[in-house]
Amino acid sequence: MTNQSEAVKERLVKKKNKRSPEFRGKVIILGSAGVIIIAAIAITLFLTSKGLQTFIANGVSPIEFLTSTNWRPTDENPVYGAVPFIFGSFAVTLLAALFAAPLGIGSAIFMTEIARKWGQKFLQPVIEILVGIPSVVYGFIGLTVIVPFIRDHIGGLGFGLLAGTIVVGIMILPTVTSIAADAMRSLPQNLRDASYAIGATRWQTIYRVLIPAALPSLLTAIVLGMARAFGEALAVQMVIGNARNLPDSLVEPAATLTTIITLNMGHTTFGSVENNVLWSLGLILLVMSYIFIVIIRFLSARRKV
Amino acid sequence: MKFVLDKKQERVTKEKEKKNAILKVRNLNIYYGDNHAVHDINMDIEEKSITALIGPSGCGKSTFLRSINRMNDTIPIAKNNGEILYEGLNILEDDIEVVALRKEIGMVFQKPNPFPMSIYNNITHALKFKGIRKKKELNQIVEDSLKKAALWDEVKDRLHESALSLSGGQQQRLCIARSLALKPRILLLDEPSSALDPISNAKIEDLIMELSSEYTIIIVTHNMQQASRVADKTAFFLSGDLMEYDETSKIFTNPSNPKTEEYITGKFG
Amino acid sequence: MNSRVTDKIATSIFVLFAAIMAGTLFALLGYILYHGFAVIDLDFLTSNSSSFREGGGIKNQLFNSFYVLFITMLFTVPLGIGGGIYMAEYAKPGKVTDFIRTCIEVLASLPSIVVGMFGLLVFVAWTGWGYTILSGALALTVFNLPVIVRVCEDAIRSVPRELKEASLALGVTHWHTIKTVLLPAAFPGILTGVILSAGRVFGEAAALLFTAGLTTPNLDFTNWNPFNIHSPLNIFRPAETLSVHIWKVNTQGIIPDVREVADGASAVLVISVLIFNLLARWLGSVIHKRMSGSK
């Protein structure tokens, strides 16, 4: 009996100082997870410190930077006011969301509540493909179709916030639609059954039951679309006209944070004030993407289904 | 069916002679987070016998079964205390090489779960990991274990076809063969035939009885006829407690606990 | 108003919205392909681009796009699978896992231009490499990694728990189970996700402007020495990709046939994305069928 027990012990008790056979795997896996952490931290730290250079090393006033509407980096007395770009970014983002949200959510409801089969078989793949269309292609279409259209039928040069809004709006439309459709689809069927069972019409069911139930997820769809709009660079740059002043109307040339960075990063000397302020604009983009994350987290915490 | 009963009778007489308890469970408690799933179990399980664990759903019998080869380790919130002595060694200790333990104490699950690979590779999967690489040796083990699992004649010409092309009952016997290939000493069966049709079920039961001459078998079952047909001893669990543990014939004809009687006569469960 | 009338009106509005959306999107695809097909021919795909004369092609840009994509995937796929395995199999609920999840979320939501700026700071300036394919690929790795990690995590999580338990119950270690059971079972999902993300990487431009640059040296396609500046395989040379080219000819191009080149290049880009998409769907279903044993 004791002999047998010893034999079992020999077979089953871990040998000391023998490396666990899982060890090598764990190293590889932990390494990958480590790269993700390092990348996220490095981006945040490097871009923050580089973006603060303008204020620390070059002595530009952060208050002027955030409140002045003048952007004259090449003057004798240079002024670095980022307001026109901040305004441009927010204007494009909000207007694009105003355009894409009703269309996207409406289409999502059409796909999930009205024409399920058709939506599933036909619209879904189209939307998935369109999510993947590169943004420069949207910008190019804007340049060749939307800008001339605005010039001929609405006025101005065609380049401006309106063109930017339409391009970005169309660009984020498939994103908003596909996330909103996922949200509607994940609603439990008994919500619908319960509403129809008490004699509600389809519209009443959608309006009183389904939309309230899916609201946090639908808002998430809009916010994700806005985040994409806020960070979009090239498509906007191609159609917005790239002026440095606050525009007076939607059809006047304007600029956004991303477009000014895109345009000037290559033209300015690395390390100069004119270059450093661009990194400060980049820092605003970084901060905004953190704010979008916080908003999305807030929304997903309220998700009921 | 008569044949089956005869075979069992024959085995029961043989059974009387051996009394070596291969597993001794002492004051075992298992918790899932805050839920105290198994309370203070004590039982001895004899070598080369069939023990059935019965009881209503959620009574802790599967949880207990899974602790015997430390499958509960895969559930992060599962904790336990007490002892399970396997040949005198407490296998719940932290210094147990779980991988080695599971080769000696195999497990077959409720739903047949063959790997999405060929029949042959299903059996060699664990053998290759053990370091057996020689083609000849592998072939021999595959043949032996399929024969033991009474599947060889049905699949010998299609060993390299996907295991998923087998019927449910064949898949389950493949899963048993896969465990047998490792030459375990104990085989844990978690409702192995509840997902199968009656004919496959009968084949699995025959197989279980065959195997008990070589292996110690512990089977969780919902099916009381199954327990009474195959098991030497039966343990009745209720709400995490071991209510009664005795010879199967005693449990089913003259249980000492009134709850056991209520359960086996179908009053609840 | 009676509720049935309201219902009718509401339904028509939803139909209208969907029609507007589908119409816009179809018009867009149709426009690109229609104008593109008028330009694309073998000559367009295989001749060098010109910086001021008419009749330039997109040979180098097309090659660069695929090459940058390839190098990016070389980094992203192993790292992404590793990260996905970690999240699906090793991460225990708790602070560390929450933190890694936040990191993935941060990386996924960064605007690509910001990723490009980070690439400029670290892979171009700090390393002293200048504008190179490697810098571009590393920036795109940052951009693509969160996508692949999520794809792999989802694919591994969707492997039935029973398969994993079956392998563990046979005394196979967790790591070996991952390698031989979980990864093969998750393979169709991973492959589909990787190909779809390849389409995204292929079309990305903003992250490449400041990392891989706006120019390409004269490439000699007979030179396969990866250390020569004129070799297409050199990863330490600048490379203008197809999407960057579309942007460049439109905003700073001085060639007279901007429109033709951009039409053709856009169509090639869109067709490539379509191919990636269809390929992903097709391969995914083929492998799935083969693995689930149905003939």
From TrEMBL, chain A:
Q: How does it sit in the membrane?
A: Multi-pass membrane protein
Q: What is this protein called?
A: Phosphate transport system permease protein
Q: Which PANTHER family match?
A: ABC TRANSPORTER PERMEASE PROTEIN YQGH-RELATED, PHOSPHATE TRANSPORT SYSTEM PERMEASE PROTEIN PST
Give the record's family classification: Belongs to the binding-protein-dependent transport system permease family. CysTW subfamily.
Main location per the UniProt record = membrane
Transport: present as a keyword of the record? yes
Which residue ranges traverse the bilayer? 27-47, 79-105, 126-150, 156-184, 205-227, 277-299
Entry's CDD domains?
TM_PBP2
One Gene Ontology CC term in the entry: plasma membrane
A single Gene Ontology MF term assigned here is: phosphate transmembrane transporter activity
* Subcellular compartments: Cell membrane
Automatic annotation (TrEMBL), chain B:
Any one GO CC term of this protein is:
membrane
Among InterPro entries, the record links this protein to: AAA+_ATPase, ABC_transporter-like_ATP-bd, ABC_transporter-like_CS, P-loop_NTPase, PstB-like
> Does Nucleotide-binding show up as a keyword for this record?
yes
Which superkingdom heads the taxonomic lineage of this protein's source?
Bacteria
Q: Name one GO molecular function term.
A: phosphate transmembrane transporter activity
Protein's UniProt keywords contain Cytoplasm = no
Q: Which GO terms describe its biological process?
A: phosphate ion transmembrane transport
Tell me what this protein is called.
Phosphate ABC transporter ATP-binding protein
Species this chain originates from: Exobacillus caeni
By which gene is this protein encoded? pstB
Automatic annotation (TrEMBL), chain C:
Which SUPFAM superfamilies does the entry link to? MetI-like
Please list the residue ranges annotated as the ABC transmembrane type-1 domain.
62-280
What's an example GO BP annotation here? phosphate ion transmembrane transport
Primary localisation category: membrane
Pfam families recorded: BPD_transp_1
**What keywords would UniProt list here?**
Cell membrane, Membrane, Transmembrane, Transmembrane helix, Transport
Family indicated by similarity: Belongs to the binding-protein-dependent transport system permease family. CysTW subfamily.
Please give the NCBIfam families that the UniProt record associates with this protein.
Answer: 3a0107s02c
The protein's name in its UniProt record: Phosphate transport system permease protein PstA
Q: Which organism is it from?
A: Exobacillus caeni
